[in-house]
């Protein structure tokens, strides 16, 4: 920035002069302090708008101890994040909520152990007010690093620890209930050899959906369960494994839409018709996938964008309440975890 542009930038003193109040009053209003009468607040805000005053963020942070920035940590490599529309939907929900509260989104991705350490150092450095973390794997070191950094955090998806030593605020969908509804629909269609393509079983969403499948198919042949990885290629591999072991299967529940799309390609390669020979159901209801498959995909809908919005809302609520503890939001008035309902959306594949 040139010296002339710096010199022409409106100052706190200029705002005070325009509003006819003291510099201290302007500072309290700009930095969100209390104790200023509403008529004076309006005069200051009007002067700020008329002069185009922009607060100095560094100085403001010293006063408020807030950075108006939130880290979004996705425990996946960038090749996965930018190829999967799930992440785009969740980020859109997060971004909308943060933008509405004048807070910036800082995106952090993890490719390997070195990246975990880098993310931990960044969070511990005091650059952000809190963190939103999703797509965790069960052996992921990120929760411990974040806990050690003392950063208020909301998780996307139920965290995998169940030892009672740590609490967590999270936003999730009813993965188990949605899976049960999908498999019950296949049973109602008269399908008797129903297979399941799981997600990556080091993630709680995949485990919950597998449990939902088993709730209905109590005595399922083990050959009717194949592990995928939430990608189209993983769906293709699992579908080939299932058909090789159980060529007479007549129904498939895939743990997400991307794997269902991969399974559909393999079914077509093998000369099987969907839904006449094999009924197929996915999970997510990601419209770029579910409505563009042929046939269109029956799937379990979870509101992915709303999940992101709620994650950000819970974090900001905890920050504003001043009750956020290290790695969680504990205390009086602290937000609670949220589990969103799911809905079966019936289309042509089942």
Notes on the protein architecture:
By secondary structure, the protein is an alpha/beta fold. The protein contains 15 helices and 14 strands. It has helices at residues 3-7, 12-19, 23-30, 38-51, 57-64, 78-81, 85-100, 113-124, 142-149, 175-188, 204-216, 232-245, 257-269, 287-290, 304-321; strands at 69-74, 104-109, 130-134, 153-156, 169-173, 194-198, 225-227, 251-254, 279-284, 298-301, 324-325, 328-329, 338-340, 343-345. The protein has a six-stranded parallel beta sheet with strand order 2-1-3-4-5-13, sandwiched between helices. A six-stranded mixed beta sheet has the order 7-6-8-9-10-14, sandwiched between helices. Strand 9 (279-284), helix 14 (287-290) and strand 10 form a beta-alpha-beta unit. Helix 2 packs across helix 3, helix 7 runs parallel beside helix 15 (304-321) and helix 12 crosses helix 13. The chain is elongated and about 80 Å long.
Supply the key terms.
350 residues; alpha/beta; six-stranded parallel β-sheet; six-stranded mixed β-sheet; 14 strands
What is the CA-atom radius of gyration, in angstroms? Answer: 25 Å
- How many β strands by DSSP? 14
- Silhouette: elongated
How many DSSP H or I helices? 15
Mean pLDDT: 86
SSE-based structural type: alpha/beta
Helix content: 40-55%
| Order of helix and strand elements from N to C terminus | HHHHHEHHEHEHEEHEHEHEHEHEHEEEE
Largest sheet: 6 strands, parallel
How much of the sequence is in beta strands? Answer: 15-25%
